[in-house]
């Protein structure tokens, strides 16, 4: 069932008069646009929409339950003592705030917060949540290797590649020391320190900010059951919580507990720092207190280790529904007697992480020898990356399959030159966070039956010499995703359509071949969003290329590496030459390579391709400039980069 924002079902006993939808919308808009300004006050710990809490002895008790803008503070000053307030570097909170012309009362409560991971509570008797499980299931212990333990909240699906993922918090799956691509353990290290045996996934994406405290990890090496442990339901939709709604969760530490929503549209100020270092973040959320009709046995709605649990709406009988209304991430600070929990809004979490409750249609993969790969995905990254277009003079030379010059495989597509019997270019996607380490054992090079053999170069070019069957799209680059998908990419990379003659020193990364190490260097040099890269590459096909065994062997190859860094699309184009090697194919006395970075416009002229709007993302800003450039730890391979003037003077 696709997610939606349906209203959760509430039991009739908890129904209460509600503010008009118009007033609530105005208050929510006020919190979202102005709330952050109030949090600059060092004594204010949160701002949200709630109902007035009035002391039983107060003459103003008739105001209790009145809708208000509710502030929480680290220390509440009685009688608004101005001197004491100033000593806290704070300012008095007004009795009323004008919102679109309406005077809305305020309420001030002494309360501070913490994320639910600083201290993990001792295990309770139900140990099944804290041991290694296969299949994994929401409600059990998980965590990054540097984190104690949290809770797997839900099984979700990555909209970008369809892979099944674990949903939890940033501070559970990543924390201050983690990064995309790290292992995620089940159970967490607090419950079982044997990290080497407990990998259950790989961190894909995370967010810590006003949209929430959230992260996903792709499930790797385990089966999964989406039904939440001890609740017996599978999440089918997401909803918007409202004041006084009754909710339920299933967490690693306190198991099944009920709560009652007492503040909505809240922004809470929380310190995620460790080892004495501050990291203050403003998190959008809502607040859950104790449900008087279902008080927890030990008085705890939540405890450390419950972070990541899914809060569900309940029906009129108090039974859990399939509507997720919150992602638990924190609670009261140490020493507080006010029991409560904090949860992120699912709508924001699902949008920020780009996830769904239902798997998208699985990409087609090779089945029973039939190639059905979905091919290169132009929308693979957060920015569109179009494939290059052939210049008019070479369009007739391109082999067409189903009226397209792109032949699709799993994670890559090939434009094939009929006259040269090799790729004009290959376009492929690399998901660095989801790469698999499958062996090439048992895989062999073979012809693609969809393409006549006379348009493909077979093994005749590679016998008894130092010419390699060089992959254009590297095998390691396309082996990612779910197991069957990654295995298909592994197999399909060995089709001759993806192979060109390359000298072994040029091609093989273990021989420090520049062609094989270029992407590695790019990964080391920049902070790539989501560890996703899209690459184009191929030979530069010239009429005067050297002929060997009846085949024209390309002197030069090119790559364009595109990535998104801090939301900005970037592209780098390179030309790599094996001309020095081809002077003596039978020997291995080799000169050093040189690597040129060129503009996309220059490369387009040489390769007879049009890169279109992608040229706007070209990182080479000054045409004709010259400089040496080292590339991360691969600098000894990419010793020098020369730009256009020297390239065309060769």
Short structural description:
The chain is mainly beta. 12% of the residues lie in helices and 31% in strands.
What share of the residues lie within helices? 10-25%
In spatial order, strands of the major sheet run: 23-24-25-28-31-32-33
Mean pLDDT over the full residue set: 80
Annotated CATH architecture of one domain: 3-Layer(aba) Sandwich
CATH topological fold name of one domain: Extracellular Endonuclease, Chain A
**Cα shape:** elongated
Largest beta sheet, briefly?
Answer: 7 strands, antiparallel
Give the CATH H-level superfamily of one domain.
Extracellular Endonuclease, subunit A
Strand content: 25-35%
Q: Strand tally, please?
A: 34
Number of helices: 10
Distance between the termini: 61 Å
Structural class: mainly beta
Low-pLDDT regions: 1-18, 362-370, 507-513, 580-593, 622-650
Using only CA atoms, what is the Rg?
Answer: 30 Å
Task: Please give the CATH class of one domain.
Answer: Alpha Beta
What would you note in describing this structure?
By secondary structure, this protein is mainly beta. It is 12% helix and 31% strand. It has ten helices and 34 strands.
Descriptive terms for the model:
single chain, 650 residues, mainly beta, Thrombin, subunit H, Extracellular Endonuclease, Chain A, seven-stranded antiparallel β-sheet, six-stranded antiparallel β-barrel, 10 helices, 34 strands, elongated, disordered N terminus
Secondary structure blueprint with pairings:
Elements (H helix, E strand, L loop, with lengths): L4 E2 L14 H18 L5 E8 L15 E7 L8 H6 L8 E4 L2 E9 L2 E3 L25 E2 L7 E2 L2 E5 L5 E5 L1 H4 L9 E3 L13 E11 L2 E8 L17 E3 L6 E6 L3 E17 L8 E10 L20 E5 L5 E13 L7 E5 L1 H8 L1 E2 L32 E2 L16 E3 L2 E6 L4 E10 L35 E5 L11 H10 L6 E5 H4 L6 H12 L6 E9 L5 E3 L2 E3 L2 E10 L2 E10 L1 H4 L12 E4 L1 H8 L1 E2 L33 H6 L1
